[in-house]
Amino acid sequence: MTKTRILYNAEQIQERLKQVAARIAEDYEGQDLILVGILKGVAFLLADLARLIPRPVQFELVDVTKKHGERGEVISLTYATHFSVRDRHVIILKDVLHSGVTENYLITHLSQQRPASIEVLAFVDKPQLRSVNLSARYAVFDEVPDGTLIGYGLSLEQNQYSNQPDLCIIEER
Asked: I want to staple 119 with a disulfide (CB 3.0 to 4.6 A). Which of 1, 12, 137, 145 is the partner?
């Protein structure tokens, strides 16, 4: 049986998201902003954050898959919709920012369209695990213990626990 412990409850998550949304609104006041969410784990974050930003904001979705090949990791992007980021400010949303490899690849890819800027927002930021020179401009939480996280979009196999409103850590399995 899986035993979990709540790290941040739904109210704490919403309070933190309000703070981050207010900072984004201030940082990008009067500018064209697009949120690019990396599927699937970011779905809850994207929906809640977009509603909390008190100005018009566009959002798009990208699915990034990693496979291990003969020459290392192979990353591929699948866009839910085709969109342009040219001359626009982009914030890439990631559920848990670990190594930064996936996000770095997406930044490189989107940079070819010449956006005004690209930043990263992590629901959970784990800079100690970074293998590339990348930092999150915005982090909802960065005080999270090591372990398997579930809830608020984060899940085990077959999306188990992703719909739980709290951010939890698995203590036993």
From this structure: 137
Question: Domains of the chain: which residue ranges?
Answer: 11-25+32-144
Residue 155 has φ and ψ, to the nearest 5°, of -145, 170
Cα radius of gyration rounded to whole Å, the chain: 16
In this prediction, residue 80 carries a pLDDT of 64
Residue 61 near residue 39 (C-beta atoms within 8 A) = yes
The DSSP code sequence of 122-164 is EEEE-GGG--SS---SEEEE----SS-EEBTTB-SGGGTTTT-
Fold annotation for 11-25+32-144: Rossmann fold (3.40.50)
pLDDT of residue 1: 57
Phi, psi at residue 56, to the nearest 5°? -60, 135
Contact yes or no for 153/42 (Cβ under 8 A): yes
Pairing label, strands 149-150, 138-141: unpaired
pTM, to two decimals:
0.91
Q: Write down the pLDDT at residue 50.
A: 97
- Residues of the chain short of pLDDT 70, as ranges, are 1, 80-81, 173
Torsion, CA 65, CA 153, CA 15, CA 119, rounded to 10: 10
Measured distance CA(16)–CA(2) in Å, rounded: 27
